[in-house]
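Dear colleagues,

For the upcoming journal club I promised to circulate an example of a predicted protein-ligand complex. I picked one with iron/sulfur cluster because it came up in last month's discussion. The inputs are reproduced below in full, followed by the predicted structure.
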Amino acid sequence: MGGYIMQLQNFSVNDGEGIRTIVFMAGCPLRCAWCSNPEGQTMDNSMVHWMETEDILKELRRQAIFYRNSGGGVTFSGGEATAQPEFLREMVDALYDEGFSLAIETCGQFNFEKLEPVLRKMDLIFMDLKHIDPEQHRKFTGVDNAVILENIRRTSQLGVPFVVRIPSILGVNCDDAAMDGAFAFLRDNAPTASLEFLPYHRYGENKYKELGMDLPDEGFGTPTQEQLDAWKARAAEYGIHVVSYR
Ligand code: SF4
């Protein structure tokens, strides 16, 4: 079997512990207005290709020495890492059996029952919380946040190290009401989760041009370090452990 991917990116250090390979998998159920990986939203564009699972595993095994020496491993990302669940499960099962350290970055919009066996084999799970308000979430991503909130709650109970990420975007979720709402939700529903803020960036603009897509809204912006520091302090007041892998 196999699936649709954008690329395997070796020597990454921002998406889990140690030196890692990121498997960028294609397809996504969301349409975030600020998306920096627009090529990952679909499986049928010029930046996506099919790869056999065994060919991916061979490449990952070639990198194993770097993972061993650094405490690193493989991180599944996207697009949305769970959008091809059978493909994901096939890779995860094989790598888990071979002792690889595994992490996943997900938008949280997935069927929990179907994904639970995969999540349980992870050493680290990253899940986004893009907006605590259902209508704002729908406005900016195309879907409300009911499934995502429930999946954050259930993932918190798995006993797997878990980081909830807030992509922090001026014009979307960088106001006190949105942040306080998110912190209160995490305190009450995901007490085992750590929190990471991901400040907005505009890195993906060339990809929009290459794919013939309209650029993200000019109104989006990056919070200042002072704003981020203030929210980190505020999150700590809720008893939330704040981390950074950047
Ligand atoms: S979840 Fe990620 S890949 Fe999907 S649309 Fe949003 S930012 Fe883009």
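Two points we might discuss: Residues 28, 30-32, 35, 37, 40-41, 78-80, 107 surround iron/sulfur cluster (CB under 6 Å). The chain has one domain: 2-242.

See you all on Thursday,
B. R.
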